[in-house]
Amino acid sequence: MTTSDTNKLMDGAALAKKVLKQAAAKVEKIQLTVSVTPALATVLVGSDPASTTYVRMKQKRCQAAGVKSVAIEMSAETSTDQLIEQITNLGQDSSIHGILLQHPVPDGVNERAAFEAIPVTKDVDGVTAGTLGRVMLGMPAFGSCTPAGIMRLLAEYEVPLSGTSAVVIGRSPILGKPMAAMLINAHATVTVCHSRTRNLPEIVAQADLVVAAVGKPRFVQGDWIKPGAVVIDAGYNEGNLGDVDFEPARQHASLITPVPGGVGPMTIATLIDQTADAAAALEGVKL
Ligand SMILES: NC(=O)c1ccc[n+]([C@@H]2O[C@H](COP(=O)([O-])OP(=O)(O)OC[C@H]3O[C@@H](n4cnc5c(N)ncnc54)[C@H](OP(=O)(O)O)[C@@H]3O)[C@@H](O)[C@H]2O)c1
Fold first, then answer.
1. Distance 174 CA to ligand 1 centre (A)
2. Are 22 and 273 in contact (CB under 8 A)?
3. Distance between CA 23 and CA 168 in Å, rounded?
4. Which residues lie with the beta carbon below 6 Å from any ligand 1 atom?
């Protein structure tokens, strides 16, 4: 890799460290002001290895920032009603400031219904309909952590958004849709693509900014990328692979996120920072 290639990389790991430091300062202020430690409840249903690893990573980062992590583990046989009851209890527990339901939940559990049991004030992972509505309307909200983390990365690298053409590939409720809303709010002209989109390479080739959130390893081809475009790879697939064919895409892009070390660390840092913000709001502390 040459120096100019290195300069093209958007270092999510470095920015995540900064965000976690800021979160730790917020936690300290809350503790000093009201003698309360911000707490994030992580709810894990079943024992899917990837989900278990993600939850552990989140708990570790919590500790690093001084946030208390309260681990709730439920069996794979948990019913939707039992999960909703657990989440409702956490919603009513004044010692809990943020609730993260690790997803996907096992088949047979109604994930959407479980998400909706999270009060918007504690929805630090940004998964509820209430949060997405607020994001769409440009109201204050804890945005879904992956797109919110991407917005922070774009700001850090001073990527101009107003008036630019952005293509988001993927329309999931936690990634593609909130990403599109956040980019629209930042005055980009946004095209959202999905599995029924025709002529995807031609659409991507028009974009100044491409966000790949597809869930297919190396799906976005390097020669689709307009020279000088900014490429954000939100994908995380087995074998540490993103949704973008990184090496060829890097040749065309002016800036690109690596996988790992790009979007992933920003997602977790945003979760922790939003937990500190939720605690401040719930405890009446002005940060
Ligand atoms: N780094 C992180 O912290 C983080 C967090 C969350 C997710 N992720 C990663 O981000 C990626 C997307 O996650 P997700 O939860 O949004 O996935 P998802 O719910 O499976 O959504 C994937 C989206 O990609 C679209 N798609 C599938 N095949 C396509 C094709 N051939 N052409 C165009 N679009 C296509 C789907 O279209 P339809 O709607 O038409 O089916 C869907 O909208 C995954 O790699 C995931 O691991 C990373």
1. 9
2. yes
3. 29
4. 146, 169-172, 174-176, 193-197, 200, 213-216, 234-237, 243, 263-264, 267
Cα–ligand 1 centroid distance for 169 (angstroms): 8
CA of 236 to the centre of ligand 1 (A): 9
Domains (ranges, CATH) in the chain?
Answer: 35-124 (3.40.50.10860), 145-264 (3.40.50.720)
Q: Assess whether the previous peptide bond of 260 is cis (omega < 30° from 0).
A: yes
Task: Supply the pLDDT for residue 5.
Answer: 66
Peptide bond connecting 147 to the previous residue in cis, omega within 30 degrees of 0: no
Q: Does residue 115 contact residue 91 with C-beta atoms inside 8 Å? A: no
What is the C-alpha separation between 285 and 273, in angstroms, rounded? 15
What tens digit of pLDDT does each residue of 210-245 get? Answer: 999 999 999 999 999 999 999 999 999 999 999 999
Q: Which protein residue's CA is at the shortest distance from atom 20 of ligand 1?
A: 215
Average of per-residue pLDDT across 46-58: 95
Instruction: Please name the residue ranges forming H helices in the chain.
Output: 3-7, 12-34, 49-65, 80-92, 111-116, 129-136, 145-156, 176-185, 200-204, 246-252, 263-283
Tokens of 73: 């583990």
Q: Which residue's C-alpha comes closest to atom 1 of ligand 1?
A: 264
Q: What is the DSSP string of 56-77?
A: HHHHHHHHHHT-EEEEEEE-TT
pTM recorded for the entire structure: 0.97
Over residues 180-206, the mean pLDDT reads: 98
Q: Residues 6 or more apart from 83 whose CB is under 8 A from it? A: 43, 45, 74, 101, 105, 109, 114, 117
Gap between the Cα atoms of 67 and 207, Å rounded: 39
Kindly state the percentage of the chain with pLDDT values over 70: 98
